[in-house]
Predict the 3D structure of the following.
Amino acid sequence: MKVAIIMGSTSDLSKVEPAVGILKDYGVEVNVRCLSAHRAHEGLSSFIEECNNNGTEAIITAAGMAAALPGVVASQTVLPVIGVPLSGAVLDGMDALMSIVQMPSGIPVATVAINGSKNAAYLALQIMANQHPEIKKRMLKDRKDMEVAAMKANAEVMEKYQ
């Protein structure tokens, strides 16, 4: 069980670390790289080729501003690519979000919320759950735990205001 995470800059690391933690908690091997689509294109292509041949099951990409990284990755693989738009200084991530969701037909990138690396990890896990029953079982348990916690919070609110 293997997922790759690629960010465009080391300044993005704090925004992708939550995804790394979630995946590792599920027992997934995570290969993390910092490879800009603009400044390290040969290294990026080499790593994508490695992912295409080493059992990687999904690739999470995180990028801000022009956010070319997810599309460049998707153009070089048929593995599921999940794009995480990152907030920047001027447009607060809307630029990256629009760049990632507007991929041309035939080169899709699944896109999560701005700075949504946690959901990127959960989406990768859902994709992998189709082939790995242990992931599916754990995800179902975790969802049930979330429901129990939500219902407990609801009961506390009801008790407080009734």
